[in-house]
Write a structure and sequence with these properties.
By secondary structure, this protein is of the alpha/beta class. It has 15 helices and 18 strands.
Length: about 550
């Protein structure tokens, strides 16, 4: 009997310890206040009176694509300003982040045809910031390679009136994943592990800088050479298969720099036969008619769109920000990248305004320009308002992008730096929110878990300590400010729509936008109501 009691006592102790550890995690989350009454109001407004789908249709199907500084971008910025003002938000404005960012550009149509050895319409679209053809042009198709400056010299005097194939044939690779994908529990579990990073090579930064300079020198020289030689157009292969054309920028957006000739990206299945025909010594000829133009001769100012729900009380001068990039590429309508993010963030602000919250801190929305060309809108906002490394004085350094500049001195923090709470970003397509990347900010993990708990029933539950990059939260993170991107289902973002002509409204799931807007609204509200700003992770300033 005593032995049985001893065993029973040991089992009871083990169970008690297990419960204590489990409840400790729960209590840690419960210590973070969550206003479930406000959460209920947010969910009700988001799910029963959503304007997300209608707003996205207006943005993508009335206004269309929004290349930075294009006429369509200007229309979208004014539309966003008018819409946010109409919803009753405060301090709605366009804020210039660069007075001479680059020229405007737009394209209306592209007609590309094979005329010999047989007739065939070719699926091809132009790169941004490259000139149109000025009407139909027809010429012989030849295959060339420009890997070095020496390659350019070898072609001098040989290419007038020609259409150039710049890439090699690429073998077709069948897809090994579904076109549209939701994260599985296994996927989410893997995301919550942290891969320990390897040490970078000592000279990695110098090598990247050297490669950048070589690439820039080659592009500038090639643009000038192609125009001087009288080349009609260049053709490159799309990086996607199955007829998808992925087209971004070419030529030059900066006034005074050579823009080259018409540059087109061709679907892989149409490009490969052209290469094979040329290699077989057939008489390959094409007719091309691209209506594209620069809309300004000089560099234009570029702007972000800003709107607020003002705070009240002693913390009103502290700021919580949410944001997404308004600009897009030009061949689709920018619905997933990043119309979805724009609409989610606008809808989150509409929800908070509609339910009448009175946040302690100011909640500020930013719709960024220039993200696709290197996070320009958000980076310049951070530099102007929050923190920046000093501008270099060395002319050679000054001409480099910020990421490559060296020896600019310690980070200069502005007064608003210490009043800044956090920034939340949305920029991975239509996929619903499944959690958030904590960017190695471990102190934020239990806070985010508490904020996500009321949305576990909508599939949002994980907080991963991993970093993610390549979008606007990085502009805040790189100066030591809390900047975060949500974990989203992959959907068909990288399989079909990312920077392609398929990035249209039909590839967006309206229910995903409703879920995301509710979660963003709740995160913004709770960040604005905390006693303390969100904790900041350890920060190491950039090496000099």
């Amino acid at each position: 009997m005593a032995k049985r009691s001893h065993v029973h006592a040991r089992v009871s102790k083990i169970l008690w310890l297990a419960c204590a550890f489990a409840s400790g995690g729960v209590l840690a989350q419960q210590h973070e206040p969550v206003d479930l009454d406000v959460v209920s109001k947010i969910r009700h407004e988001a799910f029963t009176r959503s304007q997300a789908a209608a707003t996205l249709k207006e943005l993508t199907e009335t206004i269309g694509p929004r290349l930075t500084n294009s006429p369509s971008y200007a229309r979208s910025a004014q539309w966003a300003q008018d819409t946010l003002s109409g919803w009753g938000l405060s301090s709605v404005r366009q804020e210039i982040y660069d007075p001479a960012w680059g020229r405007g550009w737009e394209f209306r149509s592209a007609r590309v045809e094979l005329v010999s050895p047989r007739e065939l319409p070719i699926h091809a679209l132009p790169k941004a910031w490259t000139p149109g053809t000025g009407g139909p042009v027809e010429g012989e198709v030849v295959k060339v390679s420009f890997k070095t400056l020496e390659d350019i010299d070898k072609q001098k005097g040989k290419l007038r009136g020609k259409i150039l194939l710049l890439d090699d044939e690429r073998a077709y690779k069948p897809a090994d994943k579904p076109d549209f994908r939701r994260y599985t529990e296994e996927d989410l579990g893997e995301l919550q592990t942290f891969p320990v990073p390897e040490d970078p090579a000592p000279d990695a930064r110098d090598k990247r800088l050297q490669e950048f300079r070589k690439r820039q020198a080659l592009v500038n020289r090639l643009n000038a050479f192609l125009a001087e030689e009288g080349v009609l157009a260049t053709l490159s292969i799309s990086s996607r298969d199955n007829g998808v054309v992925r087209a971004m920028g070419g030529g030059s957006r900066k006034a005074g720099e050579p823009v080259g000739v018409t540059e087109l990206v061709v679907s892989a299945e149409h490009y490969n036969p052209l290469v094979r025909a040329v290699q077989a010594k057939q008489d390959v000829r094409m007719r091309i008619d691209v209506d594209a133009r620069f809309t300004s001769a000089a560099d234009l100012p570029a702007a972000n769109v800003i709107a607020e729900i003002p705070g009240s009380g002693p913390k009103a001068d502290e700021v919580v920000m949410i944001g997404a990039h308004l600009d897009s590429w030009h061949t689709g309508t920018g619905a997933s990248d990043n119309g979805a993010g724009v609409v989610v963030m606008m809808e989150a602000m509409r929800i908070l305004k509609a339910i009448g919250v009175k946040p302690r801190r100011t909640i500020r929305l930013a719709l960024w320009g220039g993200e696709e060309q290197g996070l320009h809108g958000s980076a310049e906002y951070v530099s102007r308002h929050l923190a920046a490394y000093p501008e270099p004085t060395d002319p050679e350094q000054k001409d480099l992008p910020r990421a490559y500049q060296r020896g600019t001195g310690p980070l200069q923090r502005k007064p608003a730096y210490d009043r800044f709470s956090s920034y939340f970003n949305f920029d991975n397509g239509t996929g619903r929110i499944r959690g958030i990347y904590a960017q190695e900010n471990h102190a934020a993990v239990p806070i985010f878990k508490a904020w996500l708990e009321p949305f576990n029933d909508l599939g949002a539950s994980i907080v991963t300590t991993r970093n993610t990059g390549s979008t606007d939260h990085a502009s805040f993170d790189r100066v030591g400010l809390p900047g975060f991107q949500f974990v989203q289902d992959p959907a068909d973002y990288f399989s079909h729509v990312h920077h392609t002509e398929l990035d249209t409204y039909d590839h967006v799931v309206p229910e995903d936008l409703k879920q995301a807007a509710a979660i963003v609204a709740s995160f913004a509200y709770h960040a604005a109501m905390r006693e303390q700003r969100l904790p900041r992770k350890p920060f190491t300033e950039r090496d000099e």
